[in-house]
Amino acid sequence: MADKISIPSKVTVNKLAKAIDVDVTSVVGELMKAGIMASVSDSIDFETASIIASDLGVEIEKDDDIKLDTSKPTSNSRQAKVLKDGEGEPRAPVVAVMGHVDHGKTTLLDTLRNTDVVGGEAGGITQHISAYQVSHNGRDITFLDTPGHEAFSSLRSHGARLTDVAIIVVAADDGIKPQTKEAIGFARDAGVAIVVAINKIDKPEANPNQVKQQLADVNLIPEEWGGDTVTVDISAQKKQNIDQLLDMVLLVADIEDLRAVSGGLMEGTVIESRMITGKGSVATILVQHGELSVSNFLVSEGAYCKVKSIDNFNGDSIDKAHPSEPVAVAGWKTPPRAGALVYEVESEKEAKSEVIANAHAVDKIADSDQMEVMTAAMKASRDTKLVPLILKADTDGSLTSLIDSVKLLEVEGIKPEVISSSVGAVTESDVTLAESSKASIIGFNSKVSGRVKQTALRASVEIKLYDLIYELLEDLRQKLSSMLAPEVVEEEVSTLEIMGVFKTTQKEVICGGKVKKGKIVPELIVRIENPEDEGEDIEIGKVAAIQKEQQSIKEAKEGDICGLSIATKQKVKLKEGDVIKLIKRTTKSRSL
Ligand code: GDP
Q1: Strand-pair category, 440-444 with 385-393
Q2: FRET label pair with 80: which of 138, 152, 497, 556, CA 20 to 30 Å apart?
């Protein structure tokens, strides 16, 4: 047997796996067999560690001075593939279009999509996916039709880079604005090449030179001024200089020597995911390495998929996809997260155990008996309560900002969980999903037809529509807070008609009367109709004691004539003929 491996008296699952050089999935699996539900970041004691290690055929010994090496990534913190020099084959560049609002990003993306889309007619498809490829000079270029920020910010954690080139759109009649600077910042941080498209040059007030000056001010010196920032004057609307722009994109991309491994297990990034009627969860994936085929098994954090179908960006069903190709993949058990790494594994078994190892995202698992039990156990042990939501918005851009802002909301451990999000009107399938997952639907600048409203009403599904984002967020925050407070349930149990009032002080009213309905018991709340407002009752106090024929009793029944002592907080005036209502109030904690 090999030498014993030294382990400190407390060690995280992750570090143990690395130290004994066993896949973290196997360690989590062994722990589970031993009845221990531990996630990769949980600590276990040496006793447990040594039992698990020995089950895995490794002997360990305790050594508190040992520093474990954590530099190696484990399968749960799966990192994007890094190619060695010269490894792989050339691939198409992936381009994101960014810039200030109204400077023409959408127009440019539409112009590109409609002029040069690879494989012909776009838009003839029912399900538009948010990425496409165009062909220019016989070469493909992939465009991501997503707001650029998403494409940059969520990817750093696993070291991936979704985009190779950022086209920064600046309107020539408006110049560099805050979002332009932000976009430049994102691109620089991510080490992405920049091409500046100076747009709207068809406008009489266009001033491209001023834009160039502003670029120089933020250290993007235009090439024609001796710098190395590529700029192209265009009109997205009039389709001017679009070819030059694509030439420049390819030129800049060529400097990067973009490569990918074109065969073997697929690796890529989730661009977005949504529910599609008849297809279930569908994820748009950018293939980055390897080959994606129907029937492959894919894992992305807590979600996994047996690939049922692959559609290209034109909506055509295809059997295989290759690097830089954006595709819509159906077959997900739960929707994967936009921005997450997705990778192929050899078997369903492996897919499931990878998902288990990715325990931080385990609440997304929804398949197979064993996994269901585990999910429940793990969920119960966690403090955060998730409130399921389905989000709808008018455009991809507003949907992304909506998702981002909603995700940031958290009220004392109660958080929204976006289970599905898509662009467009609220549909029947949104309602069906909401019903089965007990979610509410929130729409931003989104519509809902009368028919869908009816379906929602029948299914008791809440649909709320907003056109102001802050109102939406405020309402949602209130909803989360209201879930915190216990729910108060009130029930009117009896009424009594007052026949005489015997004593009225600040703290007490003693009166007599006849029970008209129900039973009166101590502790019931006493209310009386407000004579000034017929709909509203005034609360006057609580039943402190009941008397019948000079005797204290526990309960007065319908028809009884009895005396009541009502504990009050202020002097209340009751008079003969008033009918008081007796209310039972119970509180129960809200179910989330
Ligand atoms: P985004 O917010 O950056 O996506 O901007 P849009 O693409 O929605 O464009 C904002 C406005 O500018 C729209 O009214 C467009 O029609 C207009 N626009 C976009 N590109 C051009 C252009 O090249 N020339 C002119 N004159 N208008 C443009």
Answers
A1: parallel
A2: 138
pLDDT digits (tens, 9 = 90+) for 20-70: 877 776 777 777 667 676 667 778 888 888 888 888 888 888 887 776 654
Tokens, residue 400: 């992304």
**Coil, strand, or helix at residue 154?**
coil
Contact 66, 82 (CB under 8 A): no
Terminal Cα-to-Cα distance of the chain (whole angstroms): 53
- Cα distance between residue 15 and residue 34, in whole Å: 19
**Residue 502 burial (CB count, 10 A):** 10
Phi-psi region of 518 (alpha: psi -120 to 50; beta: other; left: phi over 0): left
Residue 428 CA to residue 527 CA, distance in Å, equals 44
Ligand 1 pocket check for 235: Cβ under 6 Å: yes
What DSSP letter does each residue of 99-150 carry, written as one string? ESTTSSHHHHHHHHHHHHBTTS--S-SSS--SEEEEEETTEEEEEE-S-HHH
Reduce the DSSP state of residue 52 to 3 states and report it.
helix
The amino acid at residue 143 is: F
DSSP 576: T
pTM of the full predicted structure? 0.54
Which tokens is 11 given? 């060690």
Exposed / middle / buried, residue 249 (Cβ in 10 Å: 0-12, 13-18, 19+) = buried
Buried b (16+ CB within 10 A) or exposed e, 206-215: bebeebbebb
Quick check: CB of 163 below 6 Å from ligand 1?
no
Closest listed residue to residue 193, CA positions, set 316, 98, 77: 98
Best CA proximity match to 69, nearest among 156, 1, 7, 160: 7
Q: Does 107 contact ligand 1 (Cβ within 6 A)?
A: yes
Q: What is residue 182's DSSP assignment? A: H
Give the closest residue to 324 by CA, choosing from 266, 244, 249: 266
Which residues are CB-contacts of 278 (< 8 A; sequence separation ≥ 6)?
none
| Residue type, position 64, single letter | D
What is the 8-class DSSP label of residue 307?
E
Mutate to test the pocket of ligand 1, among 97, 100, 102, 177 (most ligand atoms within 8 A of CB): 102
Establish whether residue 105 lines the binding site of ligand 1, counting it when its CB lies within 6 angstroms of any ligand atom: yes
Please name the residue that has the structure tokens 């909401």: 434
What six digits make up the tokens of 556? 């007065």
Q: Which CA distances in Å does 571 have to 498, 504, 531, 578?
A: 17, 7, 17, 16
Q: Rounded distance, CA 198 to CA 131, Å?
A: 22
Do 515 and 534 meet the contact criterion of CB atoms below 8 Å apart? no
Please tell me the distance between residue 236's alpha carbon and the centre of ligand 1 in angstroms: 7
Q: Is 106 in the pocket of ligand 1 (CB under 6 A)?
A: yes
- pLDDT value of residue 567: 93
Tell me the per-residue pLDDT of 562-583, one tens digit each, with 9 for 90 and over.
Answer: 999 999 888 888 899 999 999 9
Beta-ladder partners of 429: none
Residues in the chain where the model's pLDDT stays below 50: 1, 70-76, 116-127, 148-158, 359-383, 591-592
Q: What is the pLDDT of residue 429?
A: 87
Q: If you measure from the C-alpha of residue 235 to the centroid of ligand 1, how many angstroms do you get, rounded to a whole number?
A: 9
Q: Does the beta carbon of 180 lie inside 6 Å of ligand 1?
A: no
Distance 144 CA to ligand 1 centre (A): 18
Coil/strand/helix, residue 571: coil
Q: Is residue 427 within 6 Å of ligand 1 at its C-beta? A: no
